[in-house]
Amino acid sequence: MTDIQPAGAVAEIDLAAFRRNVELLVATAAPAEVMLAVKANAYGHGMVPISRAALEAGATALAVLEVSAGLELRAAGITVPLFAWLHGTDTDFRAAAEANIDLGVSALWQLEAIAESKASVPARVHLKIDTGLSRNGASAVDWPDLVTTALHLESQGFLEVYGAWSHLADASTADDEIALVKFTIAVEVATSLGARFAKLHLAASSAGLRMPAARFDYVRFGIAAFGISPFDDTDGPGLGLEAPMTLSAPVLAVEALPAGHVWLGGLDVGLAMPATLALVAVGFGDGVQAPAVDRAEVLIAGERRRIVALGVDRMLVDADDLDVTVGDRVVVFGSAVRGEPTAEEWASHADSIGDEIVSSVAVRVPRVYVG
Ligand SMILES: *Cc1c(COP(=O)(O)O)cnc(C)c1O
Asked: Where is the Alanine racemase C-terminal domain (predicted)?
């Protein structure tokens, strides 16, 4: 940790570790390019600083989920290709086209809304074929209609048919292989209808790492860049990735307590034996996963210890025989490199996934950037 000493929980983001992850992914995907997925506020890490770091590390495009997030990146001065694919009836397609944000399109109504938006420049669209369980994207039956409508609107100057894409369910390798075949067939169908795609993209972290045939022009890596494995058989460090986010909080009090029912800092706990407990300024309101608490550990005074009680903004931690003082920082999760519990460990204790652990860190927790 650095010498930052805020009063409460802090999520420190190590941009150097993040860039190393992206560099590794860029090297893995090559010659495909990396379109880094920065949705959900870059999985809780902060969209703008993470986007800049990703581009420094060799990503050449960013995937943002909503047009509004793309507009935020443009306002922050980011000029690379941006891709937004989650649209509502209130999506501002005109602003998107005029800000040069590529649009993922999966339904006719979206093509119509783009044409009707009267943007001063044609919108660049990437047509989406449904290749599996995604519930989103044109089915094989609807696909020819989507393609021909898009080509018709292109001939009228409303849009440019630029890419074709889909998203893998990652349910199993066999499912992903089938999806890859469906994708390839859909591209052939579109080509026979006259489409000429400049960019094809299908893979996210999982297929980007382990299914070279799915890499095409872009790999949309997301969670792997945040040091979290998309696989069950290995963790992030096993893939050579490091977690950039460290969630920590200061010790507010340390007390030696008698056996029995005791209170400390508004939390109560039943102690079978006398114990020393540390009150730490982080709780479920900051994003600590309550279901994991019985099994999870934190790093306090260089040791891994159990959480004894959890409240909205504080927790009690076993501090028996530890040299710990008020103000010491306790790490909830961080980097395996420093022996800290990881978000992936927390996920296994909460029957969750690492994506959820890092994305759940509350908005009120300040993000502090280092490296
Ligand atoms: C979330 C998402 C990604 C990134 O997925 P990861 O599994 O986190 O790598 C890529 N593409 C789309 C369309 C997504 O929704």
From this structure: 244-370
pLDDT over 90 at 26, yes or no: yes
String of DSSP letters for 234-259: --TGGGT----EEEEEEEEEEEEE-S
pLDDT score for 5: 59
Q: How far is the CA of 220 from the centre of ligand 1 (A)?
A: 6
The radius of gyration computed from the CA coordinates of the chain, to the nearest angstrom, equals 24
Both 199 and 101 in a single domain? Answer: yes
Q: Dihedrals φ, ψ of 369, to 5°?
A: -100, 135
Q: What is the pLDDT of residues 245-259, one digit of tens each?
A: 999 999 999 999 999
Domain region containing 121? 60-220
Q: Assess whether the C-beta atom of 221 lies below 6 angstroms from ligand 1.
A: yes
Half-sphere exposure at residue 264, Cβ-oriented, CA atoms within 13 angstroms: 29
Q: Does residue 4 register a pLDDT over 70?
A: no
Question: Is any atom of ligand 1 closer than 6 Å to the C-beta of 126?
Answer: no
* pLDDT, position 133: 66
Q: In this structure, is residue 264 part of a structural domain?
A: yes
Tell me the CA–centroid distance for residue 214 and ligand 1, in Å.
14
Q: Are 256 and 321 in contact (CB under 8 A)?
A: no
- Is residue 137 in contact with ligand 1, taking CB distance under 6 Å? no
Confidence class for position 2, pLDDT limits 50, 70, 90: very low
Q: Is the CB of 124 under 6 A from ligand 1?
A: no
The residue to mutate among 22, 34, 38, 39, having the most atoms of ligand 1 within 8 angstroms of its beta carbon, is 39
Can you give the CATH number for the domain in which 117 is found? 3.20.20.10
User: pLDDT tens-digit profile of 288-324?
Assistant: 999 999 999 999 999 999 999 999 999 999 999 999 9
- Say if CB 119 and CB 157 are below 8 A apart: no
Average pLDDT of the residues in 83-93: 96
Q: Which pLDDT does position 99 carry in this prediction?
A: 98
Co-location of 313 and 269 in the same domain: yes
* CA dist., res. 260 & res. 9, Å (int): 29
The answer to whether the CB of 335 is under 6 A from ligand 1 is no
Question: Does the C-beta of 367 come closer than 6 Å to ligand 1?
Answer: no
